[in-house]
Amino acid sequence: MTSKRQLFSEPQVAEYFELSTLAKMAGRPARDFHRVLVKELVANSLDAAEAAGISPEVRVQIVGGMSAFATQVIDNGLGITTEVLDKLLDFSKFASDKALYRTPTRGQQGNALKTVFAMPYATGYSHREPVVHSLGLKHTIQAGLDDAGLPKVGRESTVDGASEDGKGTSIFVPISLVD
Q1: Is the pLDDT of residue 167 over 60?
Q2: Distance between CA 101 and CA 110 in Å, rounded?
Q3: Chain segment 53-66, per-residue pLDDT in tens
Q4: What is the value of pTM for the model shown?
């Protein structure tokens, strides 16, 4: 008697939210995610200034403790549009403006913001969500898996009264530190 094999499929999107597979995508072990956050957000800020043709102004704020870490990176680039943010939050597709531009130190990952937005969930951090301030809007990012293990991704956008001139981007991401 032969057994009939059944084909099953599941979205690979869930891999962004599992620690071991996210570490492979980020190119670093989970214990280094705090370093990945800073490196990727600063690299994106430098890219934003370069794209705008201006000298970069990048501010980095870091808060760390025994079990949690958060970084906020603020730049003077052109800002992230809502349309681009939506593409970045579509975990089923590759999205990068660096597909043809990669150097040994920048642009290698190509899916950096996807991995950055997935890190809070993957590390078990549930106290606060990533927040993006850009172009006069505040976007609170929800990215994770639902109770059935399926991706649950979205953003809540509100008018950002804290934005001075509507230029640049501020990205805040908190994570739990992993051993």
Answers
A1: yes
A2: 10
A3: 999 999 999 998 88
A4: 0.85
Sign, Cα dihedral of 16, 20, 25, 26: positive
Residue 152's beta-bridge partner residues? 144
Contact 98/69 with Cβ under 8 angstroms? no
Tens digits of residue pLDDT in 100-138: 455 555 445 557 888 999 999 999 998 899 999 999 999
Q: CA dihedral defined by 46, 50, 53, 54, rounded to 10 degrees?
A: 20
DSSP category for residue 119? H
Distance (Å, whole) CA 39 – CA 34: 9
Contacts of 5 (CB under 8 A, 6+ apart): none
| In the chain, beta strands by DSSP E | 59-64, 68-74, 131-134, 137-145, 151-159, 169-176
- Helices and strands (DSSP H and E) totals, the chain: 4, 6
Nearest-10 crossing angle of helices 112-122, 33-52: 150
The number of residues in the chain equals 179
